[in-house]
Structure formats: structure tokens, C-alpha cells
Specification:
Blueprint lengths: L1 H19 L3 H11 E9 L5 E3 L1 H15 L4 E11 L14 E12 L13 E13 L2 E9 L1 H7 L31 H18 L13 H4 E8 L6 E2 L2 H15 L4 E2 L6 E3 L2 E13 L13 E13 L2 E9 L1 H7 L4 H9 L1
Parallel strand pairs: 1-6, 7-13
Antiparallel strand pairs: 1-2, 3-4, 4-5, 5-6, 7-8, 9-11, 10-11, 11-12, 12-13
Helix pairs in contact: 1-2
Length: about 350
């Protein structure tokens, strides 16, 4: 497994280095070499789903490079592994190989992006990316940029002040999240098993009445550092997590259930999971400033966890908030346009 992980990490690192470079021809050549012809790319709303390397460059990456011409990647976590994302644990129906990274994309906000007004100042856009590798080529990518947080950096506030702490998305406290070297497979296997039990045997057993039914104190360290997206904010203890995120979330979506995720994998003490429609719920209570709609909704999200012993001490979390509010019938970009027009 470690040889496959190392080969796949080298492939993705080389692609990212070319994408971050200033040579447009080199970016095009690197994409053609690294990506499978039938690439499927899933991104943040309103970009959405794209097919093929040419579409990725033209509709996803080059608009970023135009808006942020000095764009450079600062990666906080970088791991690889084979997925076992199914709730039933049947790896024979999964077993795909993935590479993931998260951190920030830094650059001067030189021209508008997705209609978000340029500031002329440097911004740090939170990003998370998952790449599936098949036969030495990347054939599937999930990428989220924290659009709400970027809006806030541009002085536009489309959601109420977050309950958590705004603007926090740091590297791991021990700065040990970029796993360039191969890791102990036994440790990785334990991390994968631990995460699967947390997701399917912990989060999914909520009785819709008491937070204690999830047993979060068994899974999260009392001083867990939970870094949520723009609109939710960071929680720097289990108590903050329960008060500022978990309770409001479960009031709004008491029946939410983690589905078979796109992938679940681990390397060393780090684990990760992308989930496009990875959680399903009924919107039966208010959330932020959105009244309950009664609609069935799904969440597109990305997560990374760090384990110490049998508890998580850090968790980096993306939720596509634009996509979520679209399902409420609320267009966050229309809110933005009403403020900047």
C-alpha cells in the first residue's frame, strides 16, 4: 500500500506544482499528462460539475488564476490511501486509491471572482481537494473553496455572524500533516477503522433528543480544535463544538444521517473523507437565518481528522454553504449582489 500511496502522492504533487506555476502552457501539458480523458470534476457552487481536463482548466482553474494571478498553494495536510467508504464495510465494492490535501490558496485578489468584488489585497482562500487515481491517472476530483469565507474577506457578509470563531483555519498544531514519507500501515489501518466507527456507529446513532446519545465525548478530546467553514466558524473545545455548532445543526436537521461516503481513507494518524450528498436530512428547524423548509436536503462536504490515541484532537471541515442555502431557496450570491450593487 505504501508504494501506491507514494506514487500517487508524487503524481498529485507534480500536478499541483504545475497548476500553481505561471506558465499556462505548462499547466495545460501537466493536466493532459496527469488527468484521465474522462475526468469528472466536482466543485464548489456555483461552478458545480465539469467533465474533462479542458473543462477543468477553462471553467475552474484559469478563472482562479485570472482573479488571483499570484496564486500559490500552502498545504497543511497531505495524505493518501485506499478507500473503504461504505457503511457495510465491504471494501470489495470500494477499494479505490485517493490523495487529498487541504490548506489555503494565497494571492492578491486582483479581479472579481464569481462576482465577488476584488479587493486588491492578499487573501487566503481555504481549499480542500480529493483526487482519485486509477492506473496512474487522476479520473475524479472533489474541490471546495470556502466561498462564504472569501466573501467575508472581501467585506461582504451574506450570513449572520457565525456562532463559532471566524477566520480560523490553521495547520495542525504540531505541523505534521504533510505526509511526504510512507507511514506505518498498521497505524493507518487503525485510523481508518476508527473513523468508520465514528461516522457510522457514533454520529448515526443520534436519538434526536440528547446529544449524549452520540457519545461525542468518547470520540472528541475535550480540547478538540474543530475548524468549520465560513458561516459556522471554529470551535476550540468540545463544549464550544456542542454549543456553537452541534446543537444548532441538530435543531435544524435532527434526522440527518451519514450516507455511504464518496471515500474514507487514512494514512498514519490522519484520516479524511469527501462526501458529495454525504449527509442526508430533513430541514425541520431554523438554521442561521433560514426558516425550516421541510425539504429533504443533502450536504456536500470534505473532512480531515487527526487522531491521538482513541480521540480526535483536530478536525478541518468544509460544507458547501452556497449549495446548502440553494436547497432552502436562498441564493447567497443574490444576497451578495444586493450589497455590492
Amino acid at each position: 500500500m505504501s508504494d501506491t500511496n507514494q506514487t500517487n502522492k508524487a503524481l498529485v504533487l507534480a500536478l499541483w506544482e504545475a497548476l500553481d506555476g505561471d506558465d499556462a502552457d505548462a499547466r495545460e501539458s501537466a493536466v493532459a499528462a496527469a488527468m484521465a480523458p474522462g475526468l469528472r470534476w466536482f466543485g464548489h457552487a456555483p461552478v458545480g460539475e465539469l467533465h474533462g481536463a479542458d473543462a477543468f482548466l477553462a471553467e475552474a482553474w484559469e478563472p482562479l488564476r485570472v482573479a488571483f494571478p499570484e496564486l500559490r498553494r500552502d498545504t497543511f495536510i497531505f495524505i493518501a490511501g485506499a478507500s473503504n467508504g461504505r457503511a457495510d464495510g465491504d471494501v470489495s465494492r470500494d477499494g479505490k486509491h485517493w490523495v487529498t490535501g487541504t490548506g489555503v490558496l494565497r494571492g492578491t485578489f486582483a479581479s472579481d471572482y464569481l462576482g465577488i468584488p476584488a479587493t486588491g489585497a492578499e487573501v487566503a482562500m481555504r481549499y480542500g481537494e480529493f483526487c482519485r487515481v486509477v492506473d496512474g491517472r487522476i479520473d475524479e476530483i472533489y474541490l471546495l473553496i470556502d466561498v462564504v469565507d472569501l466573501m467575508e474577506q472581501a467585506g461582504v457578509h451574506v450570513l449572520p455572524p457565525c456562532r463559532g470563531r471566524p477566520g480560523l483555519y490553521p495547520p495542525p498544531r504540531l505541523d505534521d500533516g504533510v505526509l511526504v514519507d510512507a507511514q506505518d500501515q498498521a497505524v493507518s489501518d487503525h485510523s481508518l477503522d476508527h473513523l468508520r466507527r465514528f461516522l457510522y456507529d457514533g454520529l448515526n446513532v443520534y436519538d434526536q433528543e440528547e446529544l449524549s446519545s452520540m457519545g461525542m465525548a468518547d470520540w472528541f478530546h475535550p480540547d478538540v480544535q474543530w475548524y468549520g467553514p465560513g458561516g459556522i466558524g471554529a470551535c476550540l473545545s468540545l463544549q464550544e463544538f456542542e454549543d456553537n455548532h452541534q446543537r444548532p445543526w441538530l435543531v435544524a436537521y435532527p434526522d440527518r444521517q451519514v450516507q455511504d461516503l464518496t471515500a474514507i481513507f487514512a494514512e498514519g494518524v490522519y484520516s479524511a473523507a469527501p462526501g458529495w450528498a454525504g449527509v442526508k436530512a430533513t430541514h425541520t428547524g431554523p438554521y442561521l437565518d433560514a426558516a425550516a423548509t421541510g425539504a429533504t436536503i443533502v450536504f456536500n462536504g470534505l473532512d480531515w481528522w487527526k487522531r491521538e490515541g482513541e480521540q480526535y484532537v483536530e478536525n478541518w471541515v468544509f460544507v458547501d454553504m452556497v449549495h446548502l442555502f440553494d436547497q432552502f431557496g436562498i441564493d447567497l450570491f443574490e444576497r451578495m449582489r444586493s450589497q455590492v450593487s
